[in-house]
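Batch manifest, entry 17 of 40.
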Amino acid sequence: MSSRQYWYPIRPGVNGYRISQCGRNFEYFGEDPFLRARMVGEYVKGVQSTGTIATLKHFVANNTDYYRRKSNSIIDERTLHEIYLPPFKAGIDRELKQ
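Output type: structure tokens
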């Protein structure tokens, strides 16, 4: 099968609202990491139940559009694991269960 036979939207956006000036906030599921993880998991389940491939985006901690190709997010391990990674993990875990 060629890739042209599949439709895979580049979504959901699972980063959180961390910087109010981020131009992509309208795509995200909110700021609360627990709620985002729950919503992302169910979103992926729903999308993939239609035969569509869910693609999690953007990179973890990619929170700014200002100098977005040159920015460097410096985040300690605890914040990374408690705030940023849970939605990505929930989406991946849900994809693997399909």
